[in-house]
Each structure stands twice: as structure tokens, then as C-alpha cells.
Amino acid sequence: MSNSGPEIEQLIQLLARLPGLGPRSARRAVLHLIKKKDQLMIPLSAALDRAVAAVVICEVCGNVDTRSPCGICSDPRRAESGLLIVVEDVADLWALERAGVGAVRYHVLGGVLSPLDGVGPEDLSLDALVSRAPQFSEVVLAVNATVEGQTTAHYITDRLAGTGVKVSRLAHGVPVGGELDYLDEGTLSQALKARTAL
Amino acid sequence: MSNSGPEIEQLIQLLARLPGLGPRSARRAVLHLIKKKDQLMIPLSAALDRAVAAVVICEVCGNVDTRSPCGICSDPRRAESGLLIVVEDVADLWALERAGVGAVRYHVLGGVLSPLDGVGPEDLSLDALVSRAPQFSEVVLAVNATVEGQTTAHYITDRLAGTGVKVSRLAHGVPVGGELDYLDEGTLSQALKARTAL
Ligand SMILES: [Zn+2]
Ligand SMILES: [Zn+2]
């Protein structure tokens, strides 16, 4: 590809590192961008510049936003339900927001416990969760229905036992072995409504 | 997604318009970019800026490069074989270059004839091809083995009949109904070596 110039080659290599894109689809994407230079490539370049400048991680909950505390943490109506929903990552928070689960707050763990991958309690935002939990009437563990997710849920339940806060998990409705972000919105809503005490 | 800020939402919407990405994979890609801000998001933003500024379409052959005439059209060694390879789009040119087909030149049609899609001869760079062809000893039609591709090949053969230039097509080796850009490099090389006169 040396004939296309280093600018194009580098763009292909960077796009190929995005999840869901490989070298071939990255080449197709770059050609598509070049064909749609005014309608897509230049707007994407500008949007990426703006996002780089604007995006921050919320220091309270771990959400991605353009301010910290994020819009969810700053919204006083979000406190009324008293629900704090614990998720593995921001994609799951977005999935629950798309499902319209209501005026709740979130806590993004940043992963799940996974000894095989070297992920221990100190790698997740667990201390922050224990600190926040007493401000809520109920903590809902919305972790994936995987082995690691359920191990993490047990660990969090133990950590929160001393705080007196009620802990629940999403109802079964989440398919065993399935990942939250793949579910349809109705299933997610039902699973939250039918959550069970731990 | 209104809670994530317009910068993030707009970035998702633009990425979702790339081939191979939908809304869900675009959201995953944006979260991945944000997680890898220094290693991936900022370099990608810079690479896109540079590509927007640098990329041009070669006015001779239709290739994508950072100069016009492109590196292939400017390279005098590329003239020695006397071969002009006609392709539908730049992805096919790149596929042939990756296959190492040798010191050849290319002509990018910008598509294939497709009456159903409203693509007629005037929509492809056919006049430019007819003008260029007499400079070469042989024109190789490396269009996809689809109905539209073969229709286009027949049309080009007719148009070039008056020029006296030899016209060939890639050997069968290209699977019938298959697309060039999906083939492995060995198959592409073999198909060029075994090209047949029309
Ligand atoms: Zn927040
Ligand atoms: Zn050129």
C-alpha cells in the first residue's frame, strides 16, 4: 500500500484497531470516507476533534460524558428513586438508558473480577461503590450473567453487607451466559422490574 | 443517549455510517476510542486530519493518493510492461497491488454498468480509458465476475475495438459470482498470469 501515501496507510492501520473492524473492513471504510469526503470524512474528522476535546470520565460514577460529575450524577431527579444500578461498563449503562429504565443512577465498575485475566478487586471501582452505596435505598447489580459477572455480584454483596443497604440483582430474564448489551430493550426493562433481593 | 453529550452522540452517528459498522458497533467503537484516548483516539483524530488535507484522486487513473498524477502513474518503471489493468474501484487496485502483480498501471472505472441502478456509460471513466488505451500494449479487464462486471467488460471490448489495442480479461480462477477484493493473493496472481485474449 506504499503507493497510497503514508497518510492513508496510517488511517487504515488505526481504524483496523477498532472493535469490529479488521484490515479489510478498515480499507473499505477509508475508501468510503474518501469517496464521501465532504459528507462524511470531514464531518467525522471534526466530530473526532470535538470529542477528543470534550469527553471526560465522570469522577463520581465512571460514565462517559462531556462534564464531571456527568449529566446523570448532576440531575437531582435521578436521586428520587433511590436506585443505584451497578454495571460492568459504559456500554451497559447506555443499554439501560436506551431501555428507559427510569430516573436512576449508575456505578460503572470498569470490568468484572477475573483471576485468570489478572483482574482483582483493586482494578475495579469497588471502594467508590462502597462509599456511595449508603446514599441510596437500593443497589441493583446489573452485571452480565456470566461466571465472572456472578462472582463479582457475590463479592459486591459481601462488601455491602455491612452498610445495611438493600442489594438486588436483575431478574432472570437475562439469558444465562448472555451479555447485557446484546439484549432487546423490553427484556432489560422487564428484568429490572422483576429484580430479586439478594 | 442525550446524557452523553452531543459530541459523543454525533461521533457515534458518523461512525455508524461506515461500511461494516452499525449503531451498536459504532457505540462500542466510540467507547473503545474513549478508553484508549491517548493510544488510539488522539492518533486517529490526527491521522484523519492529515488524510483529509492530503488525499486526492489521481486525475489520470482514478487511484487514491496524496498526489495527482498518483505514485503509480508517475513511476516510469510502471510503463515498461505495457499493461493497463482496468478495475471497478480502488479497493480492487489495492488488492492487485497486495498480490504483487508486477509493474503495471491501472484504470479505475468508478463502478460497473448497471441499468437497474441507473449507472450508464457516462457515469464511468470510459472516455478517459479509451483515450489512454493506445499508450499501452494490452488492456486487462480485471472487473468482478458478476453479471454487471461481465456486461461492462463486453462494453469496454466494443469501445476499444477501433483502437487496435489488445484486450484481455483475468483468467477464470476468479470464482463465478465472486468479488475480486475477497480473493487471496495467490489466486489473483494466477488469474493475471493466465489471462485470456478477448
Ligand atoms: Zn456520573
Ligand atoms: Zn494514477
Automatic annotation (TrEMBL), chains A, B:
A zinc finger (C4-type) spans 58-73. SMART domains: TOPRIM (SM00493). It comes from the Bacteria. Residues 82-175 form the Toprim domain. Keywords: DNA damage, DNA recombination, DNA repair, Metal-binding, Zinc, Zinc-finger. Pfam families: RecR_C, RecR_HhH, RecR_ZnF, Toprim_4. PANTHER family: RECOMBINATION PROTEIN RECR. May play a role in DNA repair. It seems to be involved in an RecBC-independent recombinational process of DNA repair. It may act with RecF and RecO. Belongs to the RecR family. HAMAP family: RecR. This is Recombination protein RecR. It comes from Devosia nitrariae.
